[in-house]
Amino acid sequence: MYNFDFAKPSTIADAVKAMSEEDAQALGGGQTLIPTLKQRLAAPSTLVSLTGIPEMQGICMDDAGRLCIGGATTHATVAAEGAAHYPALAAMASHIGDPAVRNRGTLGGSLANNDPSACYPAAVLASGATVVTNAREIAADDYFQGMFTTALDEGEIITEVKFPVPEAANYQKFVQPASRFALVGVFVAKYADGVRVAVTGASEDGVFRWSEAEEALSSDFSAGALDGLSVDASTMIGDLHGTPEYRAHLVSVMTRRAVAAC
Amino acid sequence: MPKDSGIGASSKRREDVRFLTGKGRYTDDINRAGQAYAYFLRSDVAHGRIRSIDTTEAAAMPGVLRIFTDEDFKDTGSLPTAWTVTSIDGSVQQEPRHPVLAEGIVRHVGEPIAGIVAETIEQARDAAEKIVLEMEELPAVTDAKAAVEAGAPQVHEELTSNLCFDWGFIQDNKAAVDAAFETAHHVTSLELVNQRVVANPMEPRCAVAEYDAGDDQYTLWTTSQNPHVIRMMMGAFVLNIPETKLRVVAPDVGGAFGSKIYNYNEEAFVTLAARILGRPVKWTSSRTEAFVSDAQGRDHQTKIELALDADGMFLAFRTETYANLGAYLRLFATVTPTYLHGPAAGGAYRTPLAYVNVKGVFTNTVPVDAYRGAGRPEGTYQLERLVDKAARELGIDPAELRRKNFVKPEEFPYQTPLAVVYDSGNYHATLDKLLDLSDYAGFAARRQESAARGKLRGYGFATWVECSGLAPSQLIGQLGARAGLYESAMVRVNPTGGIQVFTGTHSHGQGHETAFAQIVAEHLGIDEKLIEIIHGDTAKIPFGMGTYGSRSGAVGGAAILKATEKVIAKARKFAAHILEASEEDVNLVNGQFTVAGTDRSMAWAEVALAAYVPHNYPSDTLEPGLEESAFYDPENFVYPAGAYGCEVEVDPETGVVEVLNFVAADDFGTIINPMIVAGQQHGGVAQGIGQALLESAVYDKNGQLTSGSFMEYAMPRASDLPCFVVDHSCQTPTPHNPLGVKGCGEAGAIGAPPAVVNAVLDALNNGGYDVPDIDMPLSPSRVWAAMQSAS
Amino acid sequence: MVEISMNVNGKPVSGAVEGRTLLSAFLRDDLRLTGTHIGCDTSQCGACVVHVNGEAVKACTMFAAEADGAEVTTIEGMANADGTLGVVQQAFQDEHGLQCGFCTPGMVMSAAALLRDNPTPSEAEIREYLEGNICRCTGYHNIVKAIQTAAAKLTPVAAE
């Protein structure tokens, strides 16, 4: 990989300052970024490690009953400590990558990258979570803007994500057999004011909400309510591991399974 | 009661201790003083003409020692291939030059164009980015059938076509085979693809070379299955270095599966660069490079047909195969789809007539060569898929159809219609063992239980016979081999009794250091711990052909046995002299030389010491020292066989296939170490299941490898596989070598793919989906699509 | 260059590294602890798994500078004090849980981490935990057995 300076700030303020360097890049757990750097597909001047900032670590409940997770919190921590508060989210985190990846990979890193096959975007979008940065709060519906594209500005750092805790939720991941990312992942979350369904892995446009399913499930929260519903295959990803038609089919199957498991 | 040492004991592996403590020594762990690093600029197009290459700016980059291009290698030979295959029309195979660095034309993605040597690997990479390369992209062809159509892009302009050879085996039998089809009661035919896969040993290739100008001596440490073969091939044919001046060391090697047999471009590069630069030069492959530079496996498109009579007896079979060889010929490129494929293509059956036709074709893809099983998995897959299809068409139980067509136990040695004579076997016994171990009788109930859960359960059979233990030199010489495939061994008994055994085979996971010691211990009657196995270094080992083709036990083990017998014969002379007995009266029993009819005896260690203290010997008839070497050339191949059963469950909603049980009942003849043999069965079966369900090297129409990393190429993980049931209790020791061993390393990779695919087809067809055929890998997407088109 | 120091296998070490120096490179090239292996470049094979502050991580997907101040354990630190094989290592030998040995260091480190988190794993849990460790030789059968054997030795109740 190309060489770079390594910065390890201990406060958000210092991190923001370090990120103001030209071509500085934030480093979460690095589980996607480091392989990318190895291929010389990125050439940051400075890598700003965010894992040494105590205020970006850990999970807690806020007064509004939201589960708040620091941006630099690892998947393993969410899996272990989130279970008591938001079991479906913790279960999702416990199946990202593999154990070693979960010990390093972070929530903020996953969201900032917004890989179209990553699991977290589905959870954040289905939960209607709020992405908190050093500068502002961004609603999940505004945050995801297509494959590898987000609402983050240059140098902006995800410090925390606030998840409203649903009445019931479940995430169904159908793994791509090589990468073990989601070939299709569906996160269903049932709130008092309606059901949200977010799909990852499937669409050319990255994570998306399946609004027809949400409507059907909001009036009848049962797998049967999804009968006859399907997503448009023409917008689905087609690759070695699945045709667009197959992914569209899996979206239906995984959504039904998620509802049944709620 | 199981033995606790010697042949038949599950001795724990001595090599494990160093591997488990991080003290293994793999090539990349070797660093030489003053070492520089090589990096290769590789082609990113599948076919192109290099219009110009400008290294001026790159050469001036920090740390760069030199940038090499084809100009620097113009005096070197072509990377060799080891076998001449003759076509039906009598012409010999077309054999294009395979340069170390591309000469004006690149023919596959990943072909090395320039080699940069710098003080650090990152500096070499930095410099590679500064090389200005002007490339005219040419049309590429990646599919073997498309490559022989009129107007296809020509991979090698200097050749008459992309057809390397068109081989008929046995051509003289073709008319009789065709005639049998004319009059057959039933003909089953099948077209299938045995997809290309990547060997992917966990250790990427690596090579470190050093040159000592003082004595004009080269040393190459490399990830090889056969260091002497590298020394011979690279020294004699590529770099013109005499064997006396080139030492090749293959230290611990982290898996190979065939992909580390060949003399690779990078090995020749670092060896020459080390001399030119006067510095040790190291190259370590990344996994990404491995995907486009390691030889790949399989890639056959086959039509196979079976003629049967009214009773379901096989009358004849014939095949037509297009074998994709890739852009160049590596060492076993032409023998793998021909002589390693045809002779065992008839499997366990007494089909009286057979004809195998294989067309070897050049394409703009990474070269293809031997991968675990090499030609035999392809033959077994096509035959066992076909037999299952015939059973389905005729409404006969697939086990029954196989059983009635098996070669019978009393028919061995059995002359097949494909030139070879099977040594020994009992195919009925392995099938019975399989049915028992897999509770075939209970399958119907298990299927019902699955159905109750909405799942489709299937059971798939495969039987296999391998023509292994490469190889009888006289026979293969007649078939076009350019070398013999004997093996060497030397047994050195040191004065204080410790024994070193030097073998020309190479262990890269097979446990030779343990198993070969068991052979010697058995025959000397001494503790295995006194015996050390040495391999992998041309400076230590007299000679060797290496490890591949399930040959190490059958050929290398036999050579060790022969050398051991010579050592015993000489030791007996010492013992006879000291014990004042005649040689014929002295016997070695449990490590003691005893004189028949007396209580006089001498321990092995006493004789060993005496051999080196020649104070009162008859020096005219007895030389001091106790060290003997032997070359063993087998008189024939050996023919291990087995019966495999796979039980799967298919999720009809998603197409996901889960392997629930896999049972392997094998006959490997005599077993040296049952624990190690079971491990080989497990690993082979896992690779076979990997090919059946997960793995595929896919090229797009431009020749880009779209599954070129572990992110896209699905390697079998622990959660993809069940625990296996493996058995090797059915043993018909081969009469073709003195140990009776038949070879076990490739078995699973040969037998597992058809068993898995047959199981899935059984599940689908019995589950209401009329799916006559499906190609590997059986990805969920593919299985689901097959169900959609069936319903 | 970044000055770093850490404890590796209980011994303090320090060095100056580039920002891009991976922990795996620091271990292999600077400390000559070559038991940590590199089998891929996409963070999938797991041959490089070590423990950092007690947690299994892929040393090829972490910068050396990120391990500054950490406690690092590699395969070289897994044997007993007297040099004999540790329980997990011994179980791998006893059950023939390795062949070529290349993935083995990572397997042992992952297995040890699993058994610390979950002393009595089921077969399915073992297989799932090995998601990030690829073995090409063994078909995993004997690796799973080795981990079960080690679990039974470390937590005798698991055997009941």
Largest sheet of chain C, described in full?
5 strands, mixed
Structural class of chain C: alpha+beta
- Beta-strand share of residues of chain B: 15-25%
| Proportion of residues in extended strands of chain C | 15-25%
What percent of residues of chain C adopt helix (DSSP H or I)?
25-40%
CATH uppermost class of the largest domain in chain C: Alpha Beta
How are the strands ordered across the major sheet of chain B?
A: 3-5-1-12-9-10-11
Q: Cα-atom Rg of chain B, whole angstroms?
A: 27 Å
Overall form of chain C: globular
Helix-strand category of chain B: alpha+beta
CATH topology title of the largest domain in chain B: Aldehyde Oxidoreductase, domain 4
Please report the number of helical segments of chain C.
5
Number of domains of chain C: 2
User: How many strands in all of chain B?
Assistant: 28
Please give the structural blueprint.
The complex is a heterotrimer of chains A (262), B (791) and C (160).
Chain A: E1 5-7, H1 12-19, E2 24-27, H2 33-38, E3 46-49, E4 59-61, E5 66-70, H3 75-81, H4 87-93, H5 99-102, H6 107-113, H7 120-126, E6 130-133, E7 137-139, H8 140-143, E8 158-164, E9 168-175, E10 182-191, E11 194-200, E12 208-209, H9 211-219, H10 244-261
Parallel strand pairs in A: 1-3, 2-3
Antiparallel strand pairs in A: 4-5, 5-8, 6-7, 6-8, 9-10, 10-11, 11-12
Helix pairs in contact in A: 3-4
Chain B: H1 16-20, E1 36-42, E2 48-54, H2 56-59, E3 64-68, E4 105-106, E5 112-118, H3 121-129, E6 132-137, H4 144-147, E7 163-169, H5 174-183, E8 186-198, E9 206-212, E10 217-222, H6 227-239, E11 246-249, H7 265-277, E12 281-284, H8 287-293, E13 296-308, E14 314-326, E15 353-362, H9 376-394, H10 398-405, E16 414-415, E17 421-422, H11 427-437, H12 443-452, E18 456-465, H13 473-478, E19 487-493, E20 499-503, H14 512-524, E21 531-534, H15 552-579, E22 586-589, E23 592-595, E24 601-603, H16 604-611, E25 627-632, E26 641-650, E27 657-667, H17 674-693, E28 724-727, H18 747-766, H19 780-790
Parallel strand pairs in B: 1-12, 10-11, 14-15, 20-21, 27-28
Antiparallel strand pairs in B: 1-5, 2-4, 2-6, 3-5, 7-15, 8-13, 9-10, 9-12, 13-14, 16-17, 18-26, 19-20, 19-25, 22-23, 23-24, 26-27
Helix pairs in contact in B: 9-18, 14-15, 15-16, 17-18
Chain C: E1 2-8, E2 11-17, H1 23-30, E3 49-52, E4 55-58, E5 71-73, H2 87-94, H3 104-117, H4 123-129, H5 141-154
Parallel strand pairs in C: 1-5
Antiparallel strand pairs in C: 1-2, 3-4, 3-5
Helix pairs in contact in C: 2-5
